[in-house]
C-alpha cells in the first residue's frame, strides 16, 4: 500500500494508518473531519434550505399573483400572519421577501454550492488526501449549522424574522421602532450572519490552502481543472469581502444595541427625535455592497467552473480557450471588487462616483462575453451526450446570457434611474445569478452524485426535471422584465395604491405566480430522484462519464484518504477529449505522455522526459507526513 | 389573458399528471437491466427539444412583448426622460440581437452536434484570432454604450440652473410631505430635525425668516411646466426613494443627508389626459426604497400645470405659520415684526417668555442644513 520509494519507517506508518480503529458513529457522520462527509452535510443542508427558501417565494407569489385570494389554508403554517380576513400580513410579506433573499443567496447558493462542491471536489481533483485542515473544515460546517439554527429559529418568533430586504439597509434595520422585522428578528439575523461569515472564512482559508499546497505531483496550476480555478477564485473573493460584511454587521449591532451612530443621523421617528447625529446610512450601503457585489460572483463562479467541466466532458471536446477561461474568471474576480457602487447610483452618492462605477461595471461585460462565446464554441463540432448534468449546464449558459445582457442596461447609470428597484432588476439578477447558479448546483449534483454516493441518478427523471425547471424559470422571469419596464417597484405588497400599477398586469402577475408554483412543483421530482437513487439507484461504474479528472481514478466510494496507496501523479491537462490519434475519446490526467505516443502533439513529446521528475516528487501526501 | 392563464394551468396540471405516470414507469424500470453506455433515443429527443424550445421560446418572447407593450409607461414627460428612454430602447435592441444570436447558436449547436455513433468530436482547444475578435467587439459596443450613457448621466446630474424653481419633498413612514418655498421670497427656509413635531412635520426652523411663507402639503405637489425644477429630497426616519415614473425621476431620500434631483416637466397633467386618453390621469410619486409596512402605498399626487395657474394656486395656499399660529412662539424677537403679516392679529401678542423657551440653548450642536 505504501509508496515504493518510501523508507521502511514510512511503510510501517502507512500500514498502521490502514488499520485505524473504526471511528464512532459521531466522528464518522456528524463531527466528521472528512471532506466528503462535510460536503454531503453541506449538500443536505443546502437542499433543506432551498426547499424553505423557494417555499417562501411561492407564498409571496400567491399574494402578488392572486391579491384577492383567501390564504386561510396557510394558517396552519403561518398562524396569525394570515389575518382574520384571510389576507397575508403586510409586515410578513416583507419578511417573506427578505428571508427568501437571505436564504437563497447565503444559505443555498453560497453554503450549499461552494460548501458542497469546493469541499468535495478540491481534494479529489487536485489529488489530496483531504483538506489542509480537516478540523477547521469541520468547524466551518458547524458554524454554518449554528447560523442555520438561528436563522431558522427567527422564522418562528412572535415579531417575525428580519424584514427590511436582504440588504438590511439601516436606519430601517437599525431602529426596532421602525418596523416589526427590526426587533428580535433582526438581532437573530445579524448574529446568524456573523456566524455564517466565520464559517465562510474557515472554509475559504481551507480551500485556498489546499489548492496551493496539496496539489499532487505534476498538478501545476496550468493543469488544474477549471472547477478548481473557479473554487480558488471564489474562496479568495469570499476571504476578502466577507470580513467587510462582518464589520458592517458589527457596526449595525452597535447602532442597534449600544447607542452608537455609525449609520444614524437626524432621525425623527414615532414622535421622538433621536440624539444620533453624524452617521451615514450610505456608509452601510458601501460596506454591504463591497461584499454584496463579489457575493454575486461567489455564487456564480463555482457554477461556471463546474459547468465548464461538465460541458467539456459531455461534448467530448476540450473546453475552448482554457487559458481565456481562466483569464476571464480572474478578470471577473478582480472587477467584482470595484463595481459595488453600481447598486447605489440613485442613493445620493456623488454622481461623479456614479460615472466611474458605470465605466468599471460595463468592463465586466467583456470577460463575461468571452466566457459565453467559449461555452458555445465548446459545443461546436462536439459529440454531445445529453446527461441531465449537461442539460442543466446548457441551461446555465442560456440563463447567463439572457440575464447578463440586461446587466448592460442596468449598469448604465442613466438608464438605472428609471429601472432601479423595479422588477426589471429582479428579473435580471434572478436569471443571471439565481437561476444560473442554481442550475450549476443541480448540474453538479447530477454529475458528481455517482462519486458522492456510488450510485447513478435516474436519467429520465433528470430530463423531465430539467425541462420543467428550464421552461418554468423562463416563464417566471422573462415576463417579469415587462413589469419592470412598466415601472412596477419591487418589494410592494400590493399594486393597488397607484394608478400606474393599478389594473394592469394583474394577469401577468398571476401567470408568473402559476409558473413559479409549476417550477417549485418540478423540484420535487429532483428530491424524489435524489432520495430514491441514494437508496436504490443503479450502482455506478468507476468513471461513468468517461471523464479525465482525477476524482474518477479514485475508488467508486473513496474511503478516508481518497486513494488507497499512492496518490496518482498528473501529466497532462484535464481536457484531452477526442484527441486525434487516441484510441478512446478521453485520456485521463494521470496517463503519462509516454503511454500515448500515437496522440501526442509535438511539444508534448518533449514533456515525456519530465515524467521521471514528476514521479520523483514526493509532495504533501498527508499520509506520508509524520503526525 | 385570464383564459390563457387558465389554459396554461390546465396544461401544467396535465404535464404534472404525465410526470407522475412517467415516474411510476421509471421507478418500475429502475431496477431492471439498462444497457451499459448506450446513447440512444433519449439523446435525440433532448437534442430535438433544444430546437423546439428555442423556436417556441422565441415566438413566446415576441408575442408576449407585443402584448405587454401597451402597458409600458407612455413617452416620458421630461426631456431627460425621453433621452434615457431612447438610450434604453437602443440598448435593448442591441442586447436583443445578441440575445437571439447567442441563444440560437447555443441551442442550434446543441442539436446539431448531438452524439452520433462512430463520430469523433473535433479537438479544437483554442483559436487566438477568434478569441481576440469576440473580446474586441463587445468591448467596442460597450464603449459606445458607456459613452452615450455617461453623457446623459452627466447632464442629468449637473447642477440645477440658477433660475430653477425649488421644492422640497420629505419622506416619512408612510407618506410624502411637499414643502413649497412660498410666494413672497420663493426661498425655502432652513430646517432642523429636532424641531419636528405634529404641528411642524418637516421641522421648519422659524429663526430663519425665509421660512415664514413656506407652506406644506401631504396630498399633492404642484409644479410649473417647462421650467427647471430642483427637487430637494430628505427623509425623516428611514430611507425612502422618490420615484416619479412618468418623468423618469428617481432619487433616494436619506435621513441626515439631503439629496436632490433636477428635471423639467414638459407636459401638463391636462395634456397627459389627452395623450393617454385617460380623463383621470394623474402624475404620481411613489417610494422605491423599502421603508416598512406601508412602503407600497406612499402615494402623493404630482400636478403639472402652466406657470400662471401654478402661481395662482400657490397664492391661494396658506403659509404653515398662518394655519398654525402657535409656531409663532418659535420666532425670535428680532424677527417678530417681519412675521407679523403671516399671523392673525392676536398671535403676535404671545407672551415673551415662550419665545426664549423654544429657542435651543446656546452651545448645543445640532446638525442643521441651510439652503
TrEMBL record, chain A:
GO terms for molecular function: cytochrome-c oxidase activity; heme binding. Keywords: Electron transport, Heme, Iron, Membrane, Metal-binding, Respiratory chain, Transmembrane, Transmembrane helix, Transport. It is a multi-pass membrane protein. Pfam families: COX1 (PF00115). InterPro entries: Cyt_c_oxase-like_su1_dom, Cyt_c_oxase-like_su1_sf, Cyt_C_Oxase_1, Cyt_c_Oxase_su1_BS. Belongs to the heme-copper respiratory oxidase family. This is Cytochrome c oxidase subunit I. It comes from Spirosoma arboris.
TrEMBL record, chain B:
GO terms for cellular component: plasma membrane. Belongs to the cytochrome c oxidase subunit 2 family. Its cofactor is Cu cation. The lineage of its organism: Bacteria, Pseudomonadati, Bacteroidota, Cytophagia, Cytophagales. Binds a copper A center. InterPro entries: CcO_II, CcO_II-like_C, Cupredoxin, Cyt_c_oxidase_su2_TM_dom, Cyt_c_oxidase_su2_TM_sf. Subunits I and II form the functional core of the enzyme complex. Electrons originating in cytochrome c are transferred via heme a and Cu(A) to the binuclear center formed by heme a3 and Cu(B). GO terms for biological process: ATP synthesis coupled electron transport. This is Cytochrome c oxidase subunit 2. Pfam families: COX2, COX2_TM. It is a multi-pass membrane protein.
